[in-house]
Design goal:
Vanillyl-alcohol Oxidase, Chain A, domain 3; Uridine Diphospho-n-acetylenolpyruvylglucosamine Reductase, domain 2; Uridine Diphospho-n-acetylenolpyruvylglucosamine Reductase, domain 3; five-stranded antiparallel sheet; 3 domains; binds flavin-adenine dinucleotide; alpha+beta
């Protein structure tokens, strides 16, 4: 079996500057531009760039016979910001790169913004800022649209507006047949629901139509402090989550970074209205002692807030995420922090290490929106909350440290899950975008949702996409 016939067929239907073979300069540049070196080390035979929805349709129709005969498989790449190796790249196959599929259009009358699949959230925020509007998107300006709008996705505004996927009113998608369809709460409703959390399993989404809302500058930034205060910050977070507030977004982290040589606490805090120093954030913003020189709390606009988040993440080095979800229970979160601290010594000498534990909020107001407009497939509902998403993030430099770092992350997550289960605080949900390869996010949505996804897969794509997407998660 060889990928060459598929590549030859693609050469016949696409301009030369849209197909780059392994080893060429343009290929090397594109393949090096993933967030994580783990993803960039994967070498497809060719990278195909598409500029229009028609290009995507042509791509799928052209490679279909080669895929069904299992001569090749392909991966879909948005902005390449998800670190899981193989989720947006494919060894020896064909990677479909969406980054030239550009365009952001705002319909002033309806307030719907239409975003092409190759955009990044920073460009969307820039456009909307001229109209005093905001949208639920990544907290990082560099994030791609697809990864978040097909997986759930937390934004600065999620407490008020829900997950990112729950703010998509229409998806334009190219199915495995090459057919372009639209799905919404009125059209292709099962497919619509499946895309809200179902990831890349159903085709290639080319455009996202999303709700916007009036949004001016807001209060936000970061506060750094010392680890002994972290347990009190956990108490404050749990209290905060139980006290319904739709304008706040509070993330608290404990991290070790080689550059600091010590563990630190970090709060990332937002109050999404034009109010300076809102008292509701005081327990987190005024934590003492803190590293005053790093305190960045200020009035900020959406684009600047997302630029600040983007600047805090490294790229081009080894990056991995793993996650779980628990009930908002202080004892469980404190136990998780202790387990994290106990593992620091094992990894702290790895070159370039950043090892962090972040608690992100899933308040009831967010979870209730999971049922809006036909719902999503995450299996989450308001009655299960408030919840806390636990993200373990690792950056490191050397391949030789892969198994040590990844092993520590896995051991930590398993220990947290075991502990939460024993104390009745466990929740099955795993966020697709933060999952590591040993985790099963789609399975965590529950049997009923998984069955819906599998049925949609058969109905919409005659199982073809399963063959096409070797990295499909269903
Ligand atoms: C600095 C930083 C900040 C982050 N902040 C947030 C945050 O605020 N909230 C949050 O929820 N997550 C956040 N994340 C995680 C983020 O959700 C993921 O990294 C996300 O997957 C990135 O999307 P992407 O399109 O760039 O990813 P890619 O790596 O390009 O793709 C991710 C997955 O989506 C699929 N996909 C992408 N586009 C399409 C499409 N058009 N059609 C079908 N499938 C597609 C790909 O096949 C792949 O499986 C952050 C990550 C970083 C590095």
């Amino acid at each position: 079996m060889s990928v060459n016939p598929a590549v030859e067929a693609l050469k016949q239907v696409l301009p030369a500057d849209q197909l780059h073979l392994q080893g060429t300069d343009e290929f090397n540049k594109l393949n090096a531009s993933y967030l994580s070196a783990l993803e960039a080390e994967i070498l497809p035979a060719a990278i195909v760039l598409v500029k229009t929805t028609e290009d995507v349709s042509t791509f799928l129709k052209t490679i279909k016979p080669f895929v069904t005969s299992r001569q090749t498989a392909f991966a879909i790449r948005g902005a390449g910001q998800q670190p899981l190796p193989g989720c947006a790249n494919i060894q020896g196959g064909i990677t479909l790169d969406l980054t030239l599929l550009r365009g952001v259009e705002l319909d002033i009358d309806t307030g719907i913004v239409s975003i092409c699949a190759g955009e990044r959230w920073g460009a969307v925020y820039e456009k909307l800022s001229h109209h005093g509007l905001g949208v639920t998107g990544s907290r990082s300006a560099k994030g791609g649209i697809g990864g978040l709008a097909l997986a759930g996705g937390l934004s600065f505004f999620s407490t008020r507006e829900g997950f990112i996927c729950d703010n998509v009113v229409t998806y334009e998608i190219v199915l495995a047949s090459g057919e372009v369809v639209k799905c919404s709460a009125d059209d292709n409703t099962d497919l619509y629901k499946s895309l809200r959390g179902g990831g890349n399993n159903f085709g290639i989404v080319t455009k996202y139509h999303m709700k916007t809302f009036k949004q001016g500058p807001f209060w936000g930034g970061s506060v750094f402090y010392y680890p002994p205060s972290f347990p009190d910050q956990i108490d404050a977070l749990v209290h905060h989550l139980n006290d319904a507030q739709v304008e706040t977004h509070v993330m608290i982290s404990l991290f070790f970074a080689a550059q600091f040589g010590a563990a630190l606490g970090l709060n990332q805090l937002y109050y999404t209205r034009d109010v300076e120093n809102p008292p509701i954030l005081d327990p987190f913003a005024k934590v003492q002692p803190q590293l005053e020189q790093y305190n960045s709390m200020r009035m900020i606009n959406l684009k600047d807030a997302a630029d600040e988040q983007a600047s805090m993440s490294a790229s081009g080095i080894r990056v991995a995420y793993a996650n779980t979800t628990v009930k908002a229970d202080a004892a469980t979160l404190k136990a998780a922090a202790e387990k994290f601290t106990a593992r620091l010594d094992t990894v702290k000498d790895c070159k370039g290490i950043v090892f962090s534990l972040t608690f992100q909020p899933y308040p009831v107001s967010l979870l209730e929106k999971c049922l809006s407009a036909g719902g999503n497939v995450t299996g989450l509902t308001g009655s299960s909350g408030p919840l806390v998403s636990i993200l373990v993030l690792m950056n490191w430099e050397n391949k030789e440290d892969d198994s040590k770092v990844l092993g520590v992350a896995r051991g930590l997550l398993e220990a947290i899950d075991e502990d939460a289960k024993a104390s009745g605080q466990a929740v099955p949900y795993k966020y697709l975008n933060y999952a590591l390869d040993f985790q099963d996010p789609i399975g965590s949505y529950g049997a009923e949702n998984k069955l819906l996804l599998q049925n949609i897969l058969k109905l919409e794509t005659s199982e073809l996409i399963l063959l096409m997407l070797e990295n499909a998660s269903l």
